[in-house]
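>> received
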Amino acid sequence: MKFRNDISFLRAFSVLAVLFYHFGYNSFKGGFIGVDIFFVISGYLMTRIILSGFEHDNFKLVNFYKKRVERIFPAMLFMIVSVCIAVYFLIPTQFIYTINNAYSSTLFFSNIYYYINTGYFDQFSKFNFFLHTWSLSVEWQFYMIYPLILMCFKSFYKSKKNYFTWIFIGFIILSFLLMLLHNYTNNTFSFFITYTRAWEMMFGGLAFIIKIDLDKISGFIKKSIVYLSIGILMFLVYFIDHNVFNWPSYFTLLPVILTTIILTLNVESNIFNNKLTKFLGDISYSLYLWHWPLYVMLIFFDANERLKYNVLFMILSVLTATISYYIIEKRNYNNKLKFVLSFTLVLFSSCFALAKLPLYYFFDDKLASLLYYNSKYKDTENVKKQFSIGKHHMSDEMKYESFDIDFPKKGMNNVILLGDSHAGAFSKTLNNIAKEQKFNLIQFTGDATFPIINSKSNFKNPPRLFNYFYNEYLPKNHNNIDLVIISSFFSAYNLDFQSFKEIREIENYFKKYNIPTLYIGQSQRYSIDYATVLTMNEKYGVNYKYDNKYFEMDKKNNESLKKFLGKKYIDIFNYKVKNIDSDYTPYIYDSNHFSFFGTEQYKEKIMQKINL
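>> returned
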């Protein structure tokens, strides 16, 4: 098939848009549309390959898959292995997290894995070295299914192309409508999942299917339309902001349709046919693969907002991509398919196994302990016991009906622990206090939800739990409640720290029932897990600038809360504790939640405030 310079240009344009977007340049805040352009290009090329094979009766499904493996797998596997090795030596506290992400990327289901575990625009996604592989997983899943669907309609394509075209358009409309439907409930699903993205790739297929008599359109008009389309794409890269627009959405039609127009008109131009454009188009896949891990490395060394390092690593991205292209991508893999597939399975199995093996096999005692807390602790029985997860703490995954509601005990003082996951972290410590001071602790805590009526939350069940507590539980049991302890990560919510509207709402509610309140105050947080903060500081002297910004913000909020609540407020922010125990247990196991070692250090201070 004839080489198309316009496709090479679009690849270069797309990868540069993504590159500058990821490296944080404000003029490229819409650079993520480069992925949508890639989708359209992929759809066009795959459709051309498949339908041209139908026309000449030489399309073979196995050969199609074989070519896709040879094209996609080697460069990505090389990147994954290289990054995992680099992380092991440079940022060891991220090793388990990295190989957990690696195995989902290796077998091309990272889009599903990231949908379940995170979101593309989430705060902590930027620390994932393989986040960008979600789009490759979407494309690979599309490649697996797409030819099978088209083969079902092969006879229509060969004999009744108009019917085939309308069927094809029907699939586009169906995928587009499903994307819109899911947007109403879960935009993250629409972002990551293949069938809500398929319409973008199939739009590219339309550029091949719909035959337009281009000879009837003058070259000047065709070029003008193409240049205008490129100009609008450039404007979209500058204008679109994911904080304003859901993505994908109706607006995604713009870059998709514009790219389809460019592919359909198929014009030759000097801006397409030059060495630089061809070079960037050639290395675009490898550049996409390498630029993001290198940028994440910058983040870990807290150098991503320093211009000289930013530019240096962009250049390094191009150099690494060039090496990958000439040494890995261009190599002939015709007789090495079994090796590539075998290596893929070995890498997948190795990543999976390494994540499960005891950490002390690979690290010294200190690193093994820190790795356990930042990558495994949250999934252990120990954390369930600390938070009382599955019983009295409403986690995101827990069914509402499974919550174990305790009621006041006669002949005892009854104390309620109320709040979000930061309150939940104190559950075991407060239960220990309850045993010593002989009171009954009743727990109502839930993930990422401030404890007020009709609280706004990304989760469904915690607000439901708090509404039950305020509307039913407390009115029926208030005569037997002696104290309510409220704890929350106050800075995480859009609270009014001037009028204290939300805090007044809580205070007025319990005042109505003559129930005293006590607040466990604002705690400290970090921009990344504390284990990595500690390790990067000790190993390289890195002090994360956002840690200082968070510290100042939280300190200000803590002082405001302390001033407003007075003696009801337990100031844990300024209370000196050990950050790491003698057995290398950190006081915070992620970026902001206390470990049991952490909460136990506040035990005496809390006990002094509980007067029953």
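>> DSSP finds 26 helices and six strands in the chain.
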